[in-house]
Amino acid sequence: MTATRRAWLRGGLTTAVGLTAAACDKLTQSPQVNATLDGAEALNRRLHGLFVGRSALAREYDRSAISPDFRANGTTNPDSEDYQALAAKGFADWRLQIGGLVERPFSLSLAELHAQPARSQITRHDCVEGWSSIAQWRGARLGPLLKRAGLKPQARYIAFFCADTLELTLDGSGDYYETIAIADAFHPQTILAYEMNDAPLPVAHGAPVRLRLERQLGYKMAKYVMRIEAIDSFAALGRGRGGYWEDRGYQWYAGI
């Protein structure tokens, strides 16, 4: 292949990718397309609950199934001064804040979180990009922590605010956050994982704590969790669609 032909193909591919990206941007900004996607998401959520059940457990595996090369995606080391200071001390000064629409807000150190009711599970992580890996996770069950805080009647969602920023924006909408339904927060496999494969959770995978929400796709499992709040609406968070990636076109409910 000649250099001219390679350059022509490269230019063609770049143009095609650019046109596709531009088309996707236009689609995600279309009210009609978003309304259709929202309708499909609601249908998916109803069918998932009807045929699978929101409390059904995700499959768990033997240790022999653990993947030797679990990929770390998204942010792999938040560069904020606050996070780096916490990491430098082994997260000894980290405290998880639990508040919002609760009767008894409180905070926990990492050592105190380790003392809470916990669960270990070997599960498969399914990424929206098309790859899957299996790992063992251990962490505090979220449900008992929320019971301790005492949810107020108007609480409908649980929001997770994280240390990483995927996109620098003036309005802060590039800061990673995620929201889930109250029912999913109380699922028995929903944990705040602080161990992976019998070792402290690595920074690349979300240390000191990440959410594990085994019945949904990987992008729902927020890493670097710093604060949890019970809320009645996520309209005022980010761009109002319930999570960093949801604000950029992903569906809020990612049930599998």
Automatic annotation (TrEMBL):
Record-linked InterPro entries: OxRdtase_Mopterin-bd_dom, OxRdtase_Mopterin-bd_sf, TAT_signal
Family annotation (SUPFAM superfamilies): Oxidoreductase molybdopterin-binding domain
Residue stretches making up the Oxidoreductase molybdopterin-binding domain: 92-232
Superkingdom classification of source: Bacteria
Protein name, as recorded: Molybdopterin-binding protein
Species: Phenylobacterium glaciei
